[in-house]
Amino acid sequence: MGKYDDIIGMPHHVSATRKPMTMEARAAQFAPFAALTGHEEAIRETGRVTEAKAELTGDELSRLSETLNHVIGMGRGVSVSITYFIPDRLKSGGRYVEVCGCVRKVDEYERIIALESGIAIPLDDVADIRIN
Length: 132
Fold this sequence. Notes:
- The chain is of the alpha+beta class and 132 residues long.
- It contains three helices and five strands.
- It is 24% helix and 27% strand.
- The longest helix is centred in the middle third of the chain and has 17 residues.
């Protein structure tokens, strides 16, 4: 005779006064306890990779300036693709993004390219401009 033979065939107990727990509530009882709040986020942030801002060569700067002058000469509404650097707010480095849109204005005093979508791109962060 086995150790649990006397109870193995008995029906599962169902409380008459309490509702059964949901599977999510039952699983939450066994969730790991985070002793250090924010520790996991700090580890994730440390592991997040950023890129360094590339320094453009003289030839690249010259080509970029030529393209920008061409865009200014074409006036408002010219469709462009701009690759630019966005500095990271939390750590050194950042990332490069590419946006496409129509130029609203190039403000040489404020040193920005304003697109009709509302995006303002600092001229110092532009890595490439292509006219579409």
